[in-house]
Amino acid sequence: MPRPSANRVHSGTMFGSRTDIGCVREHNEDSLVVAPPLYAVADGMGGHAAGEVASEVAVRSLAENAPSTVDSEGLGNAVMTANYAVINAAQEKGRNGMGTTMTAALLERDKLAIAQVGDSRAYLLHQGTLQQITRDHSLMADMIEAGEITPEEARVHPQRSVITRALGSDPDMQPDLYEINVSAGDRLLLCSDGLTTMLEDNEIEKILIRTRDPQRCASILVNEAIAAGGHDNVTVIVVDVEGDRERQVKKTKRKGRAWAVVIVLALIATVLGVCYGAYTYTQSTAYLADENGKVAVYQGVPDTVLGISLSHLDHVTDVNVDDLQPGVSARLKEGVIRADSLDAANSLVDGYQEDIAAGKKPTAEAEQLDASTDAAASSSSADASAGSTSSAQGGTLQ
User: Fold this and answer.
1) Residue 14 bridge partners (DSSP)
2) How many angstroms from the chain centroid is the CA of residue 109?
3) Domains detected in the chain
4) Cβ atoms of 370 and 392 closer than 8 Å
5) Looking at the predicted structure, is the pLDDT value of residue 6 above 60?
6) Those residues with Cβ within 8 angstroms of residue 35's Cβ, 6 or more apart along the chain or in another chain
7) For residue 257, what are the contacts with CB-CB under 8 A and spacing of at least 6?
8) How many CB atoms lie within 10 A of CB 226?
C-alpha cells in the first residue's frame, strides 16, 4: 500500500512526499525522513525484509544525529553514524549483507547541503532546467564515465542494480558531500532509483515544472513511475526552495530606489537642458518696445514661462515713439518689433536716430525694410520657440 505524506509548510518552505511499494516487490524497502530542514531518502537491500530494516534504521539514526542548520560536514558525520547503526543492526539481527542507500539534504533559505551514498539521487530544478546534483555509486555510473556504455544502454543493462557504495557494508564508508547555493523558486527533488529507472530526466523535469503544488507533484511522479512498470519501490520528496526572501526583497527595494534616482536625475537633466536651450535662445534675440513713450531695447523674447520673464531691459533710448514714421510708431504702441540679435535691434534704433537728426521721419522704404526685418525675426523666433518650453507665439504684434 502507498504511504503518502501530506503536503506541509515549515518556516515558509513547502514540501511534499510519497513512497509506494510499486508493482513487483513484496515489501517496501524504501524509507524517508521529512523533518525540515532535514530531508532524506533511503533504499534498502538484502532481501527477506532486511532492506526494509536497514533503511528504517538508517533514517532513524540520521534524524537523531543530523545538525539543525546547513552543515555539510555535520550531515556527513550523521550519515556515517547511520552506517554504524546499520552494521550493528545487521549483527544483532543476524542479517549480514543488509544495507541501504542514503541521500540526505539540509535546506535552509539559500543554502543546501547534501550527503550521498548509493544510487538514490538529488536533483535541483533551477530556472526551468533539471540538474542532477549527486553522482550514483553504481557499476553503471562507473561504466558510463569510462565510456564503456551509454546512459541509454545502462537503463536496460542486466547489472543496472549493482551499487558500489552503501550503508551497512563498510565501517570506513565515506559519503559524498555537496554544499551549494540555491535560489527562491528552485525545487529540490530527492528520490530512490525506483523513479529514475522508470522515468527519464526530461519526463521528470516536465512534471516538476508544470505541477506547482509539491505534494501533488510528488504523487504524480510516483504514479507515473508505477504506470511505466513500477519495477521497484518508488520514493519521492519534493521541496520548494524559499530562499532568503528578506534579503531578496531588500535587494529588489535597493534596485527600485536606484532606478528611481536614475529617473529623477534624467528628468532633472532634461529640464536643465531645456532651460539652458531656452536661456541660450533668449540671449541671442532682442526686440524694441514702447517704454513710456520712448523706444526701449530688450534682450530676449517678450514671453514668460511659469511666470518668469524670458527677457530683460537692455536700455531705454532717447528716441520718442511719436517721432517715428506712423506705421512703426503704431507697431511699437500695439506690440513690439523683433530683431535677430541685440546688435540688430541697436542698428534699428541708430537708423531711427539718424532719420530724426536729419529732420525727417523714416521713409516708407525704411519702414518696409524694418517690417521685413521684423517679420524675419518673428519667423525665426517662432521656429525656435516650437522646440522649447516657452509659450512664444508667431508674428510681430503682441
Assistant:
1) 9
2) 18
3) 3-243 (3.60.40.10), 280-386 (no CATH)
4) no
5) no
6) 63
7) none
8) 18
